[in-house]
């Protein structure tokens, strides 16, 4: 899979820009605050209908304008497909092949991307919300059913929390209605938990191979999913559902007092171990970065395995954060395999040696030109 063309209209600091890309490695060079990351953000948003930098859509619209648009053309084994995404005071509009998509779940997955930025090192040592978001975004691109179930779960969770909050504030409500919400939550939670566990098992298989190579065969990486109840290999949906039901019965009074749902996928986590030790707690910074790199590169292979297509890789100023060995492993892993977009003030010496014929764009104050044009 690759993104062959990209057009921006009033997106961030860009008035209008239209670019054509190489199927290999594309590099955006420029000083800080010129718009390099905005270009990567636009590709990410085109794929996932959301920014990775802000939750407020109006932040994406150029100052003083009323609407913004991103348009792109993707090429995969089935042919070419135009995509577009627009933001205005009327909301968000997504199109595939020029046809409106009433649900974003039908839009997401047309273009699969993996973003690796310096803050992704927090995947290892950050809060559980970082790792949950990682699963939801990456697995959601590969599996539309998971994306739909996750969306449904969030809606039921919101309704249940509102009802529990009302219970806590103003006293007992209808227990039967709460039971209905709980049953709906458990059904969706069961499917999500089993899907996440399966996803992490597959990701671990891919990441372990890469991690061994980066660590010179001296370390073994493992992932451990942490759910509200023990989830063993081979556990059936019925067994998990019964365990969750027992847990919710046990914590029912506490939930009513606190006015919120105290268990479920929205509170789950996973740990990243190296040689059976939690690398977030006891690992060195080098080990943490190796683990993060292995997970990101493992995603590339897993996405290819699950969808039949390699994703587009976005590297936002990440090369300068990696030492020579990790830069080398990263660049060799993607060379001639994955269409890649790199932002950097300048290319490192290792990158210049390893990248074959990159297409270089120079970015300055919201203007982009191919290097050969200057």
UniProtKB/TrEMBL annotation:
Cited SUPFAM superfamilies: P-loop containing nucleoside triphosphate hydrolases (SSF52540)
Gene Ontology CC entries for this record: cytoplasm
GO molecular function (one): ATP binding
Subcellular localization(s) per the UniProt record: Cytoplasm
GO biological process per UniProt: DNA replication; DNA synthesis involved in DNA repair; double-strand break repair; SOS response
Keywords: ATP-binding, Cytoplasm, DNA damage, DNA repair, DNA replication, DNA-binding, Nucleotide-binding, SOS response
Superkingdom of origin: Bacteria
The UniProt record lists the keyword Cell division: no
HAMAP family according to UniProt: RecF
Protein name (Swiss-Prot/TrEMBL): DNA replication and repair protein RecF
Species this protein is from: Fructobacillus ficulneus
Gene name as annotated: recF
């Amino acid at each position: 899979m690759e993104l062959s063309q990209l057009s921006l209209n009033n997106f961030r600091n860009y008035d209008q820009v239209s670019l054509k890309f190489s199927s290999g490695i594309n590099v955006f060079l420029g000083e800080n605050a010129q718009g390099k990351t905005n270009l990567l953000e636009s590709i990410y948003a085109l794929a996932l209908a959301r920014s990775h930098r802000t939750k407020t859509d109006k932040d994406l619209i150029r100052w003083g304008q009323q609407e913004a648009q991103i348009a792109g053309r993707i090429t995969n084994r089935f042919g070419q497909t135009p995509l577009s995404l627009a933001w205005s005071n009327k909301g968000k509009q997504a199109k595939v092949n020029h046809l409106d998509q009433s649900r974003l779940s039908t839009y997401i997955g047309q273009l699969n991307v993996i973003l690796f930025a310096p803050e992704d090192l927090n995947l290892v040592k950050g809060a559980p919300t970082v790792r949950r978001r990682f699963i939801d975004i990456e697995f959601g691109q590969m599996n539309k059913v998971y994306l739909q179930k996750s969306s449904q779960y969030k809606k039921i969770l919101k309704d249940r929390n509102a009802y529990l909050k009302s219970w806590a504030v103003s006293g007992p409500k209808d227990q039967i209605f709460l039971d209905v919400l709980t049953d709906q939550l458990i059904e969706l939670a069961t499917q999500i938990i089993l899907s996440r566990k399966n996803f992490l098992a597959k990701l671990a298989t891919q990441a372990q191979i890469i991690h061994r190579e980066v660590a010179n065969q001296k370390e073994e990486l493992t992932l451990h999913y942490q759910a509200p109840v023990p989830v063993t290999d081979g556990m059936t949906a019925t067994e998990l559902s019964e365990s969750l039901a027992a847990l919710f019965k046990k914590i029912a009074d506490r939930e009513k007092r606190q006015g919120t749902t105290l268990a479920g996928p929205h509170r789950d986590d996973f740990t990243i171990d190296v040689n059976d030790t939690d690398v977030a707690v006891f690992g060195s910074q080098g080990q943490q970065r190796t683990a993060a790199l292995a997970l990101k590169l493992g995603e590339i292979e897993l996405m290819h395995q699950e969808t039949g297509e390699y994703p587009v890789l976005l590297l936002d100023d990440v090369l300068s954060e990696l030492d020579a060995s990790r830069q080398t492993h990263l660049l060799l892993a993607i060379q001639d395999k994955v269409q890649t977009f790199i932002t950097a003030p300048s290319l490192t010496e290792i990158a210049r040696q390893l990248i074959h014929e990159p297409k270089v764009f120079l970015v300055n104050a919201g203007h982009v030109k191919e290097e050969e044009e200057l």
